[in-house]
Every structure is written in C-alpha cells, then in structure tokens.
Amino acid sequence: MADWINILLKAFWCGSAAVGFGILFNVAKENLIVVMLGGFIVGLIKFSALKYVSPSIVLASFLAALVMGIYSMIIAQIRHEPLMTYATPSVIPLVPGVFAYRTMFGLIKLSSAAGDEYSRILSDTARNGALTLFIILSFVLGIIIPYQIGKDISRKIVKKGMV
Amino acid sequence: MEGKSPNRLNESDAFGALLLDIGISLMQAGANNSRIKITMADLAAVYHYEPDITIGSGSVSLILRDEDGNTLFSNIRSTSVHGINFSIISGLSRLSWSAEKNNWSQVELKKNFLECRKPAYYPRLTILFFVSLAGAAFCYTFGGGYIEMAITFIATFCGLFVKQQLTRSNFNTYFCTYAAAAVASMFVGLFEGAGILTVSPINAFSTCVLFLIPGVLLINSFIDLLDGNTISGIVKGVNALIHTLAIALGLLTTIIILNLKG
After folding, report:
1. I want to staple A125 with a disulfide (CB 3.0 to 4.6 A). Which of A106, A150, B68, B118 is the partner?
2. Within the 124-183 window of chain B, which residues sit less than 8 Å (CB to CB) from chain A?
3. d(CA B32, CA B14)
C-alpha cells in the first residue's frame, strides 16, 4: 500500500476514535463533525511527521497536539465554546497505549527475571516507560500552549476594550 | 451593606446561589478550575457584580460585591460527584455570552441554566457501539489487523458495559475502572488461549482498555497546575494516576490468571 494511503487510512481511524470519545464525553451532536475532523488532523500530522519529518514519536505527538490546540482554539472562538470540548476527544488517539502496556508487562516480568534477562527487560521497560511519560507530556503541553496563549490574548483584548 | 435595599439583597442572594449552582454543575461535568472561574466571573460582570471566587478540589466559594465594594453575598458549596459531560460545559460556558447578547433577566438566566443542566444523552447502545469502534480504530492505528480490530471491538464493548453497570450500582469509581480493564483484557486473553489468534495480541490487549484512560483528568490537572491552582492540579493528577494503576492492575489480573507470555 502506498505510504500516503496508509497515512490517510490511519488518520481516518483516528477521526473515528475521536468521535467515539466525543460520544463517551457527551459532546453535542453538532460538534461531533468538528471533533472527527480534529481527530483526522491529529492522525494526519502524527503519521506524516513520523514518515517525513522525524522518527521520534514524542516530536510527532507534540506537533499533532500543537496543531490540534490551534485548530480547537480557532473553532472555540468562532462558536463561543470552551476549547477543551474539541481538543480533548481529538487528542485521545495520541495516548501511547502500546508503550504503557509494554511498560506494565515489563514490570511484571521483572519480578521473575534473573541475570542477563533481568538487565534486558529492565532496559526495555525503562525505555517504554520514558516514552510513555514523554508522549503524554508532549500532547498535554501541545494542547495547553495554544490554550494559554489564547487566554492571554483574550485578556488583552478585554483590557483594551475597557480602556 | 446598610444603604442597600432589601430587594437588592434578595436579588443578590438569589443570583449568588444561582452562580454557585453553575460553578458546581461545571465542576461535576469535569471543567477545569479556570473554566469555572471564567464562566462565573463573566456572568457576575453581566449583572454588574464583582465576584471573589475560590475553587477547591470539590468545592466552590463565592463572595459577591457591588461596585462600591459592599459585600452582598458570601457562601460555599461542595460536591462529591465528578463526571465528564462536555454538553453541560459547552452550554454553561455560553450562558454569559447569551445573557449579555439577549439582555436576559435573572429569571431567564435561571431557566436557561436549568435547561443546560439536563442535556440530551446519547442512547446507551450508541455509546457502546461508537466507543467500541474507537477501540478498534486505536487497534488499527497501533498496527493491528482486522481480526485484532474485531476482537478489540467486542472486548471494549464488554468492558464498557461492565463499567456502566457497576457505575449504575454506585460502586467505587476505581473499582469500576479495574473491573472494566480486567473484563476487556480477559476477553482478548481468552481469544489467544483458544488459539484463534496467530499473532501475539499485544495491540488488542493494549487498546481494549484505552476507553478507561483518564485523559480529561490528566489535561485538566496540567491546566490547573499551570494556572497556579497547584492543590487542585495535584488532586486531579493523583486521581488520574490511581485510575491508570487500576487499569494496570486489571491487565495484571488477566495476565496472571491466563498465564500470558506477552
């Protein structure tokens, strides 16, 4: 399968995942299409960045979340809604489930391993744990940076209006 | 306060109580502290009050003053119910904008608030179907095949169903998360044990419990910490951590019972 078709397919499924979480969080029906598009953008940026920019999943997750944060901020301003309504379900596809699972499974195996096996499992588990932590941090910060900047801009606009 | 008419005091009592109701409803719907403060302060400004709002991990306190600095209302309200409902957050956040635009009286504001507080919920089957589809979608993005996706779909469906049932029976929220993770992963484990899967179901295993990840809590925790609401941020962060541990414990239970090799 061509790379770009694979990226588009994954982006589509990220959009579907975002809709699922939108429904779980009881996002209003009229906002679900925005959430789906958000999830699609997140998938598109993440997998494109992994393929064409850098193999670092931390960087790819950060870029995807940052773009998602900006997208949510713009839509939130237009629709007079909180940014989190759009941003939270859309970034859920960035949750590093596999790395978290491997970390947890490694910790379980550590309890019965010995010798060289122990060192190998320990190093794998530490790597997966660090990746899990940094991916979570990267997508949370990616969302929060535009949120904070947007809030500061709004405050300045309100202050200017008062003067 | 001496110079204020009884009407003004009654009005501010009613408005203060309404504002606290709005704050508590936002908290129960999973809004971060900043969102609660902004919504309450904007509404108070629309009706020409100056508020002092303090938000704890499960409480909202409010002092309302008039333009001259006289205290008109002071009260605190707390809640132990916490969930996630973005429709309520959206509706309540729009209240101040609508109140200003439509020049609502306080009675109209209260009527609209009560309408926002009871939004339409998706039917249970719709939630189960779409969240399960989300689980299958995750499985694909993590590299799973179509058989793994189908297994993840059913596993997520079972896990979420169990969580909904336990939540309805008022079980401890962490126990609900643990039981849901155990049931969902057990389902995948049984498929592997039955020899239906030719490859290791690592993708199905790790994605069938993703619907339990406390993403909202985690993001709210960081927002609160960055906003300077340190205690609230830590409380939410610890809450998210316990949920994550409950998920890990659920997976661990399955791995030990079915003696899976990973």
Report:
1. A106
2. 126-127, 130-135, 137-138, 140-142
3. 25
